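Appendix B: complex inputs.
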Amino acid sequence: RKEVEQDPGPFNVPEGATVAFNCTYSNSASQSFFWYRQDCRKEPKLLMSVYSSGNEDGRFTAQLNRASQYISLLIRDSKLSDSATYLCVVNGGDQAGTALIFGKGTTLSVSS
Amino acid sequence: GAVVSQHPSWVICKSGTSVKIECRSLDFQATTMFWYRQFPKQSLMLMATSNEGSKATYEQGVEKDKFLINHASLTLSTLTVTSAHPEDSSFYICSATPPSKGIYNEQFFGPGTRLTVL
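Resulting structure:
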């Protein structure tokens, strides 16, 4: 079983659409969860951390279900600039300094 | 804050040569840095964990004698690809975690180095 699995892409949506990405992880000891955004030929940049209580940042909402080992990202009112690859990222354990484990990413393409 | 730089940003070299990539944390000290590699349309794959003052920890399948890592100071880690071959062509990215983050280790990434081996 892969450590971090994401929805297969690509997602092609019109501007203004709402789109949801799902992710599951296999290591129950993981403590930190993130969504990163990666533009073509660029490094990943943190979009948001994911907390058990769920968190929202503008048009972006992230949810975490520890029991199901499931993470989601909801993007409302999609913009052209949201086109990118979204990476579900989990830390490898419960110790400080553990490496992050990346999902393969889901590509989003927003069109006008 | 939490800026990580990499140098060079891109390099083209002949097969058989060695290439050194530097990763620097500019405004914080990083006891641990990570080196990743990303092939086209693939996810980032961890190559090794670089610890200041000690030997790096390599992931399974990564040759430590080919990918030499040196973490000589709290702000600098280097990755040397020795005797590079075309199959080593990839996007190499480093990351570092500010110590205050503890286990909530949001990592900050360098801009990456695109290596092309001819």
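Chain A has a mean pLDDT of 89.
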